[in-house]
Amino acid sequence: MNKYAYTMKVAFLGLFLGLSPMAQADAAWTVRHLVNEQSIISLEVTENYLLLPIQDDAPEGKIAVVKDNELEGTFMNVRLARERVDSYVPFALLAYKGQHVSIDIQGVPESALCWKELKTAETFDMTNKESFRPVYHHTPAYGWMNDPNGMFYKDGVYHLYFQYNPYGSKWGNMHWGHSVSKDLVHWDHLKPAIARDTLGHIFSGSTVVDKNNSAGYGKDAIIAFYTSASDEHGQIQCMAYSNDNGRTYTKYEKNPILTPFDGLKDFRDPKVFWYEPAQKWYMIVSADKEMRFYSSSNLKDWEYQSGFGKGYGVQPNQFECPDFIQLPVDGDKNKMKWVMIVNINPGCMFGGSATEYFVGDFDGKEFKCDTKPEVTKWLDYGKDHYATVCFSNTGDRVIAVPWMSNWQYANATPIRQYRGANALPRELSLYTKDGQIYMAANAVKETEALRKDTRKVDNFTVKDEYKIDEIVPQTDGAYELEMDVTPGKAQVAGFELLNDKGEKVKIYLDMKAGKLVADRTESGIVDLTRYGEVTVHEKETDDHRKTMSINYKNDFALGTWAPLSLCEGKTYHLNIFVDKCSVEIFVDGGRIAMTNLVFPTKPYNTLRFYGEGADYKVENMNIYKLGL
Ligand code: FRU
């Protein structure tokens, strides 16, 4: 709504003022409830924040600041508490200190609990309140997170942006949240870098370091590309630039820079990269069921080149979050290949969202895939690996970060203060197996800095069973297991991660089926129904990000598997990272990666090895307690 229309609406509703003005006895503010579930808080701003009481499953209302009868910025959606307060989120008023403002809240009935529970405060308490919060994985301090966005590396700092809702722990109000790290494992939270605006949500995208000043904002300016998404404007590509190393961005005044030529509804997640042979920038945009390439000299004007992907990989699907990288095959720099990373939703072998990739060649116009359309290669074989994209400007290294969830139940995990974690950053590389080129994804070597205590376990043979009673003394549920497993003639060689409540994750090599399996059917909380209860409002929307599935048990309580044919040998090298609510398995340097969430009501602290068919060997085993 424009400012004029807004002023008129408030003026009109003003005729009804005086309907039950509700003064807060001990606060410098009053709430007036108008008609149609609109309320106006009138406030002398003396403190930094208005703390909003949130109820996770309440329908969304909306909130905005009004100053001198003008709307400031745009409305944000917020699930204000109706009958229960699950958590608080801060609504920043710092900019208005010492001034009078009105807060316009719409879509929340007068009977809602929130009116009693609203507070103002000078600070916002971000102390962790969640027992499932990972120890060493990146999470937002509060609020909702999905896809990693716009990651770049510069001057020794990794910048990680992410799809972020600062006003609740469910998807909404997409901003680019921002964290930085010097080593990919210790992260500091910064203020969100790009906020939802009148063009819409700030959806996923990428950044580049503009080394040649192509865009004209200075050498080494950071240029961000993202999708603005709204019902009014659809999905359009926009640009913003930063002259302070990605801390703050100015949106390009002539946005959008790219719209779909055929009016596509799903047209998003621009990935921009420099293509040396053409001395040009290229952008890939996911366009429904394909990826589209564009090129540009100035990062502002984009020319269509080609499309790739229709009919490729798993069907049916929806392409999202592309990346496009070049890597040597088997470490040979004379044999470079291009890889297109395609995140798809749905399409995962185990339901919901997952990441596939295609290996081939690029000539500056078109990408040609080496394999037939029906060949699908997976970057990860778990159920909680999505929206994976890579850092820009990392030289020879290609480092990817996956979001560790699945759209089927991402909004329903048993966590309130925040939702969403990123999986461990992974180093990508290409290897050949049986004449095919595959991409390995291994936990970055920087994760070794997390190893606090090392316990070496003597080599052992598993006859029927072999137990390690205490994985880590008084564990907080954060450790890594490393071992070589040689199944020999055993048909099954595996182990359970167990707690004393009988909750367990089974991880085993099924040699008959040629599969590595991780089974979380009895891993703890597996029925997410209670947490995923949705309001009628949500069920009516067709937005998959809000409610894709309502079978919160069957979608979670299952096992995932990977083909052992990706590995070479008789002995399998395993690195398994456990962190409160996740289990990430890497076999043989990432030839198999498998990422799964788990919600044990107590940390798993016993290992029970078991086998079938014959004895087998476990060697070179280390248990590392992990911490920051
Ligand atoms: C993928 C995705 C993207 C989109 C973003 C919105 O998870 O659907 O395609 O940009 O999430 O939050």
Largest sheet: 7 strands, antiparallel
What gross morphology would you assign?
A: globular
The count of β-strands is 44
Helix content: under 10%
Mean pLDDT, nearest integer?
Answer: 93
Secondary-structure-derived class: mainly beta
How many helical stretches? 4
Rg estimate, integer Å: 25 Å
Strand content: over 45%
Distance N terminus to C terminus?
47 Å
Query: Which molecules are bound in this entry?
Result: beta-D-fructofuranose
The parts where pLDDT drops under 50 for at least 5 residues are: 1-26, 534-542
Descriptors:
single chain; 628 residues; mainly beta; 7-stranded antiparallel sheet; 6-stranded antiparallel sheet; 4 helices; 44 strands; disordered N terminus; binds beta-D-fructofuranose
Write the topology of this structure:
Layout: H1 3-14, E1 21-23, E2 29-33, E3 38-44, E4 49-54, E5 61-67, E6 70-78, E7 87-92, E8 100-106, H2 114-117, E9 119-121, E10 143-154, E11 157-165, E12 175-181, E13 188-194, E14 201-210, E15 221-230, E16 234-242, E17 250-251, E18 267-275, E19 280-287, E20 290-296, E21 303-308, E22 319-329, E23 332-344, E24 354-362, E25 367-369, E26 377-378, E27 386-390, E28 399-403, E29 418-419, E30 426-433, E31 436-443, E32 451-457, E33 460-462, E34 465-468, E35 478-486, E36 492-498, E37 504-510, E38 515-519, H3 529-532, H4 536-540, E39 559-563, E40 572-579, E41 582-587, E42 592-597, E43 606-612, E44 616-626
Parallel strand pairs: 10-29
Antiparallel strand pairs: 1-2, 2-3, 3-8, 4-7, 4-9, 5-6, 5-8, 10-11, 11-12, 12-13, 14-15, 15-16, 16-17, 18-19, 19-20, 20-21, 22-23, 23-24, 24-25, 24-26, 27-28, 28-30, 30-31, 32-44, 33-44, 34-43, 35-40, 35-44, 36-37, 36-43, 37-38, 38-39, 40-41, 41-42
The protein binds beta-D-fructofuranose.
